[in-house]
Design goal:
mainly alpha, globular
Length: 302
């Protein structure tokens, strides 16, 4: 009996990893720039609100199918809450507490380790020895880089704790999406996900950061062209394109392999942060970055 020929991977799937890494890495330094003109939860409230406007316009133009079951709405909302409110929320709080863009990117690259430990029990994926070896090398590289940066930029307890909670958020979102996520249209997924994030973040922003009785968020922002440019990148590049690519890649590939892409983010994020905001990269950090990159190759290769 002749076996059917394998369907070649779509073009977008071949380009998606590189595009995702570039857009995601740039988001760290860009967020640091935006936070010079706005408080963290206020920035997220504005960002999520603008993304929802973009998604509503896309919804009107494209008319994608909406979830038919209440449980599908729930799963999309849970992923949105974990990714938008928990991950981005605590990431921005970590930035405001003094954690650098490169350092946070390095801490977030620990996600594949957590995914590798949790995926077999969570959704039955088998993690190969090559993946474990790659993850171990990546962890070693991350540890080297964090150690070398500690003398220059020691994280505060508040900043480090927020970073750990952000890591937990994006890890849980990836696992939940892989197990319960369905092939919904990206517009549908993003609209529901960012709405869940806005519902969670906006009340906290109004309560904790508003300057006059809870209704002055926009006027508390310093509206400069730098803030506008950073916000545009965060809304279109980071929120619409990068998050859409991440969720799509999770649906079509093993979650542990997709998560290993995060090892490629730290070196690029560190370079971008150095170019944009002058964050120092210690010479001894580069061997660690190289080790982490080798781990990515091993963990993600077929």
């Amino acid at each position: 009996m002749n076996r059917p020929a394998e369907t070649p991977a779509p073009l977008w799937l071949l380009v998606a990893p590189l595009l995702f890494v570039m857009l995601w890495a740039g988001g760290y330094a860009t967020a640091k720039i935006a936070l010079e003109y706005s408080q963290p939860l206020t920035l997220l409230t504005i960002r999520f609100g603008l993304v929802i406007v973009v998604m509503l316009l896309a919804l009107i133009l494209l008319r994608p199918a909406m979830p038919k079951k209440a449980v599908d709405w729930l799963h999309l909302a849970v992923v949105g809450f974990l990714l938008q409110a928990v991950y981005f929320g605590f990431s921005y709080i970590a930035f405001s507490s003094g954690v650098g863009a490169g350092t946070l990117a390095l801490l977030m690259s620990l996600q594949p380790i957590v995914i590798g430990l949790a995926a077999p029990r969570w959704n039955g994926e088998l993690v190969s020895w090559q993946c474990w070896l790659g993850l171990l090398l990546g962890l070693t590289g991350v540890a080297i880089v964090i150690t070398t940066r500690a003398s220059i930029e020691p994280p505060t307890i508040m900043g480090f704790g927020s970073a750990v909670l952000a890591l937990a958020g994006i890890t849980a979102a990836s696992l939940w999406e892989k197990r319960f996520g369905l092939s919904h249209h990206p517009v549908t997924s993003n609209l529901i996900g960012y709405s869940a994030g806005l519902i969670a973040i906006a009340p906290l922003a109004l309560w904790l950061e508003s300057g006059s009785g809870g209704m002055n968020l926009v006027r508390d922002v310093e509206w400069t062209w730098q803030f506008g440019a950073a916000l545009f990148y965060l809304v279109i590049g980071n929120s619409v394109i990068a998050v859409g690519l991440l969720l799509s890649m999770i649906r079509v590939g093993q979650v542990s392999r997709v998560s290993a892409l995060f090892y490629l983010v730290p070196p690029l994020a560190a370079v971008i942060a150095w170019l944009l905001i002058g964050e120092v990269i210690p010479p001894l950090a580069w061997p660690g970055i190289a080790i982490a990159a080798a781990g990515v190759y091993i963990a993600t290769r077929n």
